[in-house]
Amino acid sequence: MITLTRPEGTLASDLNLSRRALAGAVFGGYAVYALSAAAEPITTSADGLVTETVQVAASDRAIPAFVARPAAKGRFPVVVVVCEVFGVHEYIRDTCRRLARLGYVAIAPDFFVRAGDPSKISDFTEIRRIVATASDSQVTSDLEATLRFLKGQKYADKGHMGITGFCWGGAVAWLACERFKDFKAGAAWYGRLSAPNPGDFLGEPGRQWPIQLARDLHAPVIGLYAGKDAGIPLADIETMRAALQAAKKKGSEIIVYPDSQHGFHADYRASYDAKAAADAWARMLAHFAAHGVKPKAFKAEG
Length: 302
Hints:
Blueprint: H1 19-28, E1 49-57, E2 62-70, E3 76-82, H2 90-101, E4 105-109, H3 124-132, H4 136-151, E5 156-166, H5 168-179, E6 183-189, E7 221-226, H6 234-246, E8 253-257, H7 274-290
Parallel strand pairs: 3-4, 3-5, 5-6, 6-7, 7-8
Antiparallel strand pairs: 1-2, 2-4
Keywords: Hydrolase
GO molecular function: hydrolase activity
Domain Dienelactone hydrolase: 63-290
């Protein structure tokens, strides 16, 4: 099995992918690189939901985005779901379905479509190449396009929108709340907070990181982090907390699960921590509700 202990993936020395895991990833739709041989991922029913892949008009081309929403009339609060380095694979789609069954419109844009599908690749060097093509400016532009798309949908309540992201997407969630006034709340799952060393993965000059823009935060963010994350130093978390306090940003908090590893919410990985994942999920929903991103009473059938 694989233990992903770093915010942008594992090193080659961490990899020991069984044939069973590889086959399960390919046929189950999970990321080939990261699926644990012992995983029993959560599968959420789509009964009572509308699930579809839509095309979002980005600045240079249309990009696909997975949408899950209640199959009911009316407008529903929105949660933008930002993927890990493995793209919009089954884990991300299932997360969208979980949110939709609670009464949200959940949308997961494919930020990597221009360069490939990292979920189907077992070579992490190639995955990094694909992910690195999604520049800071491109991701920001794609988010802007996603917001524009949502504002044109009759089922989306554009006044009550939140964002969440995992791993690579955790940093994007922080940045989105720092750059866009449209989001009322954010939830960042173990996303990098500070710049990597020059020359490291995503360490190119000019890319901005959450600590740098803490003073610009428009919406409160709950950060959900792991105490045993080898790629996100606890010192970075303290620096982020201090930056938020210095900027007098109220409503944000960072929770650390001391015995968990990076990726503790990802139920298809060996690093999955069911107890921490459930607690963090509940905290995320409470954070959204406290800041106006709360669905009306809705119960999906099935």
